[in-house]
Amino acid sequence: MNVIGKRIRKVDGFELVTGRAKFAGDYKFPGMVYGAVKRAGVPAGRITSIDVAAARNTPGVIDVLTAKDIPGPNLIGVLPPYDQPLLAENEIRYAGESVVLIIAETAEIARSAASSVSVSIEPYDPILSVEDALAPDARKIHESGNITLSKKLIKGEVKSAFEKADVIVEGVYETSFQDHAYLEPETVCAVPGRRITLYASCQSPFHIRGHVAANLNMPASSVQVVQAVTGGSFGGKDDVAAEIGSLACIAAQRLNRPVMIAHERKESIIGSNLRHAARIDCKTGALNDGTIIAREITVMLDGGAYASESPFVTMKTLIHAAGPYNIENVEVESTAVFTNKTYCGAFRGFGVPQVTFASESQIDELADKLGMDRLEIRRINGLKAGDANATGQVYQQSVGLQETIEVIAAQPALPDRIDVARYLHGTGYACVAQGISNGAEGIDVTGASVQMSQDGSVLVGIGLTELGQGSRTVWAQIVAEVLGVDIENISVRLVDTDSVHDSGPTVASRSTTVGGMAVQKAANEVKKSLVSMAALMMQTDEENIELRDGYAILKMDDAARIPISSVATAAYWTGFPLMNLAFSKAPEANFDDDTHQGDIYIAYNYGTHRMDVQVDTTTGEVKVLNHFAAHDVGRVINPLGLEGQVEGASLIGFGMAHMERIKYADGIIQNANFADYALPSIKDRIPTKSIAVEDHNPTGPFGAKGAGEPPVAAAAAVFANAISDAVGFRFTRLPITREDILDAIQQRGNHG
Amino acid sequence: MRYLKPSSVSEAADVLESSRGMILAGGTDAYVYMAEGFCHPETLIDISSIDTLRGIYVATDDREEEVIRIGACTTIAEIAASQDLPTCLRQGARAVGSPQIRNLGTIGGNVCNASPCGDTLAPLLCLDARFVLRASGGTRVIACEDFFTGPKKTVLKPNEFLEFIELPASSCGKASAFRMIGNRKGQAISQANASVSLVMVDGRMSDLRVAVGSVAPVPLRLGKLEEFLTGKRVKEVSLAMFKEPILEGIRPIDDVRSSASYRQEVTVALVFDALAECASKDSGECEGAGA
Amino acid sequence: MIRFKCNGKAVQLEAEPEARVIDVLRDGLGLTGTKEGCGRGECGACTILLDGKPVNSCLLLAGKIADREITTIEGIASEDGALHPIQEAFLDKGAVQCGFCTPGMVLSTKALLDENETPELEEIEEALSGNLCRCTGYGKIVEAVREAGQRLMHESDQQGDA
Ligand SMILES: Cc1cc2nc3c(=O)[nH]c(=O)nc-3n(C[C@H](O)[C@H](O)[C@H](O)COP(=O)(O)OP(=O)(O)OC[C@H]3O[C@@H](n4cnc5c(N)ncnc54)[C@H](O)[C@@H]3O)c2cc1C
Ligand code: FES
Ligand code: FES
Prior knowledge:
The structure holds 3 protein chains of 3 kinds. Chain B is α+β, with helices and mostly antiparallel strands. Chain B contains 11 helices and 14 strands. In chain B, the strands form 4 sheets. In chain B, strands 4-5-10-6-7 form a 5-stranded antiparallel sheet. In chain B, strands 11-12-13-14 form a 4-stranded antiparallel sheet. Chain B has a 3-stranded parallel sheet with strand order 1-3-2, covered by helices on one side. Chain C is α+β, with helices and mostly antiparallel strands. One FE2/S2 (inorganic) cluster (FES) sits between chains C (96-101, 133-136) and A (183, 232, 468).
């Protein structure tokens, strides 16, 4: 391998370090105007009247739009029937709901005019908890009721299994809402015309195109969505990009002027999706030798006002709740519920962090009850090749969980604990598995094109987006490896719905795996042309030709070589195709809808983490002394990129576990800014050491599996276990803040 | 909006008198208020480039006593880096926001903004700071402990601004320390903070000042605790012992940043740590301004 | 009319003194490398250097930069397009993911290394504590700052030898 497995720097990095990269807010067009919305400000009610007179009369205001000005259905969402209006017409379902769109000469004017709009709302008693939403006489937030989706997974017979169990542990675990807090707030810019173009900071341009077209009442082919360089997404820039993207396009077409809508930070927090808060009831039964024989888990997700990705997150929690263990009897029920809060959707990890926290906490409790080593119990029960996981799916290879456990076990232990009165020390372990590909959530197809020019340089196109995770670099590496060209000669296009193939959403750690397969396939077709051509030129058989270092080389005589550019030129004039559009389709999930038994994902990423912490008993402050994160990634394509993914995802998990909590009071978010919503700063970072385990995955390019998400879950869970170990108290709610820690220490002190 | 940039203190006082505009120093608080729509000043009087309002030097005050004088527009970064100021004030300055904020923000702004969580307020209080207030008619001097009247409220009249902060020259001979805790480690706003200054005489604490911030509407001196500690050796006291005098003194609230009970508990720890740091040092830690 | 120096060049443009410097740079001068992540001084994406010191351009009013010198990300690489050692180190060490925090990070790093090419870990953390990054977890940023310091020291050694 020449390029695969090497520390390659980002292929699109030059623009980013020089400030030349064009993010959506950096676009500028003559005559451009700006949009801002008036939000409901109350969590639930019915609009009785809207007074826009003051806004209309504000100098600089050009247009004022309400729901009736939307040409199409005024709806967006992820799964039909869509449920989320662009601008609310009657019902208000959360405080961040957009009601009126103001277009003005400047963003400031638009904002201040928006604040002058008065919306009269007859308030309802807001439904602010899952319990209230499920109460028998609860008001229905949507006509369909307050349950978004409820599903069951049934494997074996939990009831009788629990009767056989020697020990049983039970508990309730809770997690809070988390904001994506990407540094770039959501921004779009629409340029009108017979065909309209939308430049958007977004994750899934084709999804947005569909919504824009529908709401404009235009055919999809009349809408071009171009992904601008995107300043982070983590799952978050989808629904909201469709919302403001559609609004900007509608206004642009009305006014025949380019329209930009850029969220302020506050809007980014209250007006776009969050990570679901969850309540997880978990029960585990085991034999005295440590074998887990039954798990029964109920997951309740607070999904906020709209469905968004809730159905898929429900599925994900259902499938992952029992953890990466070989358990014969499992029953899980997952339910997502509507409440009058900001809607929840995709966020890196996609439900797995919540259930992994619950599951891994309980594994520790079980080990303690059995008097067993906490790593040993994971070894005993951890999945191996050939085992059936919770959905009964069996993988014959690429199940590297045990290896990640051993790698973690081999890390140096903490030096002898110096528990001077003031500081407590603790160590935690956590395992995770996270499915790769859309799996049960839908068909998984990706299209990619590889096109070589006569000079040997290559242009790659794919419908999945670069969001900072380094996918472009991975795809370029794959092409460089297959075609033997220098990575500097490879460019990966911006995603433009006019010129790349719809590849579904950039989610589920699928970019490297499913996306990479399509790229590899297309590159292989181009390779065929080059090899055929080179064989003709060297008058030899095709199998004697190798593409490497920018040359077609005769295998038996390294000196016999022709530059790829010459081969490409010859191929062009000979009529051999130098471009290919390939599709990669993941094997379709095949499972029973009532029990969720069957084959779901093309592969899982497995991981084990260890964290050592020191706790200050006088303030509850935590210092993370070590964090080891081992993941089975099949095959490392780019160590630099992989480490970055593991480190970044781990800190998001740590933030979820220790620092970040969206605070509501009466349905209104109280900390919608970065001073009070504490995402980690550089001083809060943790010393993550990423360790790669490579258990070849036959369904990924060169054996690779995605790794962008699983560390979030493992890092959150391992923090909880490490802190619980240090304090000697089982924390069951995330985040575990300094305040919670100090409380626990004092209560422990008081009671003994 | 009018934006004025007077070039001298007297000009500033005159414009303030005639316009009743809003004083702008670094603007780090003022800008945020305007952006959030909390205030809509018609006139902004930017005093940050008036030379005499910047710098740290030795002077004689209105009582003919030697003082360390700090210009109101001295930046927080300059305070943090100064070798001529007591440790607690420098540590408090270092706890303000980020390097970017400290390069813009001024100590005068921190004081006049009068946020209960302002990180230089407890240090100034425990150093017996006095504030020189300027109006077109002249100046008046007010002790730090009389300056703050409530959250974001001070005795400043609409025609007055803060010209100097003065510390007794003797404050440089004291040992002092500041501690804070926030909702994260970097760029955090204080959930609680504490500042201590003292002189060790034969191993015993004397001339003790303990001030705390973010736990009451204004920064507070903890007189009871000072009394309790005076004359004692640091080794004789434990955290448990001074919990009570502290809890008696403070009036924390629940807000989005912290619960009242956490503020209470943590204040005890912060005071204890600051005290321990003081005791571990010889007194006389800074050179004195201009030396 | 406001006069100031930007990236080494004298600039003069029509702007209200109460306009924000970030808008003056982005809209007035087309220097869109300076990013807005929060508009409230809380994220550091808008960091620029004012007389060599990092400040939040989203809090800075244009009236305050008269006759002063500003450096933005566009002024870091050399005129011929060659990257500055800090930029090279950020790429080599994988300190850039989405890149939205990067301009601010690079400028805060420059301010630090201009004073001290071999900063301690605590000094690096302090210098970058006003720049949030959601993507990297910061570890690689710390490595990049160290690496950049080393490279700058080499450069100045070589210039010293020459
Ligand atoms: C992101 C962020 C983080 C922050 N973190 C902290 C923190 O951790 N700790 C902390 O203490 N503060 C913090 N602050 C608040 C602020 O930066 C400080 O209070 C700073 O010292 C204010 O100084 P300034 O010069 O910018 O004040 P300005 O904004 O210019 O003024 C603040 C107020 O004081 C008045 N004023 C200013 N100077 C005078 C004067 N000489 N006479 C009379 N009135 C005057 C103004 O009219 C205004 O009402 C933070 C601010 C931001 C934006
Ligand atoms: S945009 Fe200026 S600090 Fe965030
Ligand atoms: S690289 Fe995305 S915020 Fe730092």
